[in-house]
Automatic annotation (TrEMBL):
Residues 5-62 form the Transcriptional regulator-like domain. The lineage of its organism: Bacteria, Pseudomonadati, Pseudomonadota, Alphaproteobacteria, Hyphomicrobiales. Pfam families: Trans_reg_dom (PF20109). It comes from Bradyrhizobium nanningense. It comes from the Bacteria. This is Transcriptional regulator-like domain-containing protein. InterPro entries: Trans_reg_dom.
Length: 64
């Protein structure tokens, strides 16, 4: 996504039908602090406590 031209309508055509969760994710994944926290979590052991702390901090909820 880093190579995507944010001015290109074509690059974001999928967002025309996006719901609130989709837009929130697009915003969050570009956040520098989120990216750093994710890198830290990825580098250390993914204990359930560390993953839980990450989810709480960023307000993430995963469901199928």
């Amino acid at each position: 996504m880093a190579d995507t031209d944010w001015r290109s309508e074509e690059a974001y055509s999928g967002l025309k039908t996006a719901d609130a969760a989709d837009l929130a994710w697009e915003w969050l994944r570009r956040d520098g602090d989120y990216q750093e926290d994710y890198k830290r979590l990825s580098r250390r052991e993914r204990s359930s406590a560390a993953a839980g702390e990450f989810r709480r901090k960023w307000g993430l909820s995963f469901s199928c």
